[in-house]
């Protein structure tokens, strides 16, 4: 299967309604362990620059910097469901922001460029991580990041987060050679987008001297009960198959995906790293209806420890069903 085909299944989006999103500042110590307070706040505008990443397979990546200069930022994001505050695994999280001088890729003089944009899939803890830069600013807006959570092909949430003003000013002021426009002159309270409050849209920002980078954590609560929503693609796929989470997960070597086929189908499994590269693909052939097990020997693939996205395809006579699960390998 072509890489673009795999990536387009991570949400199966064409038109997804925007709903309310909630978010909570996370604790400074082990920030992504704490749960969200599950208070919903109004969704924010996606801004004038929300490129449709589903049209470009290149955006499935962890490092979104490309050639942009700036202080390195390791951004951690956690997604939970509002109804029960449980993690939401296997949902797609898009982020995009301006570069060090306030420019967005894809528009005006930057048309055709793709820097500072990308998406990841949440793991079993509802978490994902990006490598980027501390953004700059542009007139009228405080330093911020746009994000969109695609829970299913029928349900997405969109909002923005920012950081404590003093900390972003300090980050930029400490590296004047990287930020010619200087520190952000606005505070969150002066930004009209956050006029309805920003306490629940505040991420942490701390300097890690050992890694020579900033570490940020942000937790967002979307409507739901810690489970994926249902849209057209999900309903059609459910008529063909149901894919469970692999066990054990994390795994040291062998892991297995439970698969229930509702119709006879040709089954294929592929494994992708966080840079969007297919590292393994296996066609199991035509299987009958009923319960099946999909084994995966990660140790035999000589892979590095880390997080991977596993896609299962079940092609029946009527529909090609697709589903994705995030898995963690701890073998090497």
Write a structural description.
With 332 residues, this protein is mainly beta. It folds into two domains: 3-222, Aromatic compound dioxygenase (Protocatechuate 3,4-Dioxygenase, subunit A); 239-329, Immunoglobulin-like. It has helices at residues 3-8, 165-173, 232-238, and strands spanning 18-19, 21-25, 72-81, 92-96, 117-121, 127-133, 145-152, 155-161, 206-208, 213-222, 241-243, 254-261, 265-272, 278-287, 290-297, 306-315, 320-329. The strands form four sheets. It has a five-stranded mixed beta sheet with strand order 1-8-7-4-5, with no helix packed on it. Strands 2, 3, 6, 9 and 10 form a five-stranded mixed beta sheet that branches. A four-stranded antiparallel beta sheet has the order 14-13-16-17. The radius of gyration is 20 Å and the shape is elongated. The two termini are 28 Å apart. The model is unreliable at 11-36 and 225-229 (pLDDT under 50).
Summarize the structure.
The chain is mainly β and 332 residues long. The chain contains three helices and 17 strands. It folds into two domains: 3-222, Sandwich (Protocatechuate 3,4-Dioxygenase, subunit A), CATH 2.60.130.10; 239-329, Immunoglobulin-like.
